[in-house]
């Protein structure tokens, strides 16, 4: 089969969104299919030549189109007054990108087209005009829920007002576009329930983020460094509001409690695009701010407990799946682990700051407990989140519908 995947994110730097896209595309290619990925090159994400060459060897062709997604306060004001579309969606609408879609459809024979995330849904009408096959919508999260939760936890009144306004527009847009696709691939059962509540009546298959579980297992087995010092590990895009809010909450409410028992412990923070105000807050004792890192896997394998202190979000946390696959002990808020299929043997859920601190202390003093949690987590990834298995299930679902 020939498959066209349309994405609003180029491939570098890697984050949860483009990893979810690339891993499923690789799963399709491993089943013997030719995959084209048309993506947007923005100020945040690019297509490096080495990435294009690497994926070409896997039978995946990556094609990028430059799209200006910079935030303009003039365009934002114009959007509020004159448009009914959410501004953060409108930023990804491009005539050049539309023309490239039409060109690809006319020059190639695709068996199906897969739209990745809400930010590519505006192109469905253009696709329908020149493509008669199946259009599949793979939703990475429920966007309006994220912004509604951002509004709830924001302490700034202007931000609360705008975030609620944005959430309302996003929900209206998602309701408008419901059922325009032929098949729906939500990333979690939680999201699937939301789509059904919005009125979805098209065939649906929950399609979680998948990884090459054997590869991650090998990396873990090769990590033979002796456990000498324990750390608390945080990894995430630091320009994403839920990550910012969760990290600040942890620093204020959890870290001081841990330091009372383990004064020497360090919170290691890795992530790109941290704003200056956040970097300033990270410049305190017991915190080591690393900024953008080249090798996320190497960071995750650092000795210590992996934390996910999130209070807003939707979809599923890719970094948790990676950490599980690498055999890490993980402590998360309920929201952080939402959308994942897990038990208390695999991930520890902390509902309060006290629970978070208590479990960090317990694990930091017990390497055997960390290893036990990591072993169960790794087995869960192998059974539920292997990318080749997920790709096979999706292709079978598409053929049956």
What does the model show?
The protein contains 18 helices and twelve strands. By secondary structure, the protein is α/β, with parallel strands linked by helices. It has two domains: 2-210 and 386-400, 3-Layer(aba) Sandwich (Rossmann fold), CATH 3.40.50.2000; 213-384, Glycogen Phosphorylase B (Rossmann fold). Helix 2 (49-57) links the parallel strand 2 (34-41) and strand 3. The two termini are 16 Å apart.
Short summary of the structure?
By secondary structure, the protein is of the alpha/beta class.
Give the H and E element order.
EHEHEHHHEHEHHEHHEHHEHEHEHEEHHH
Strand-residue fraction? Answer: 15-25%
As a percent range, the share of helical residues equals 40-55%
Name given to the CATH homologous superfamily of the largest domain: Glycogen Phosphorylase B
DSSP, total strands:
12
Highest-level CATH class of the largest domain: Alpha Beta
What's the rounded overall pLDDT mean?
92
Return Rg in Å: 21 Å
Essential attributes:
401 residues; alpha/beta; Rossmann fold; 2 domains; six-stranded parallel sheet
Question: SSE layout and pairings?
Answer:
Blueprint: E1 2-7, H1 16-30, E2 34-41, H2 49-57, E3 60-66, H3 73-82, H4 87-90, H5 95-107, E4 112-116, H6 124-130, E5 134-139, H7 143-153, H8 157-177, E6 183-186, H9 189-198, H10 213-222, E7 231-235, H11 241-253, H12 255-261, E8 266-270, H13 276-282, E9 287-291, H14 296-300, E10 304-308, H15 318-325, E11 330-332, E12 348-349, H16 353-364, H17 367-384, H18 387-400
Parallel strand pairs: 1-2, 1-4, 2-3, 4-5, 5-6, 7-8, 7-10, 8-9, 10-11, 11-12
Helix pairs in contact: 1-18, 7-8, 12-16, 15-17
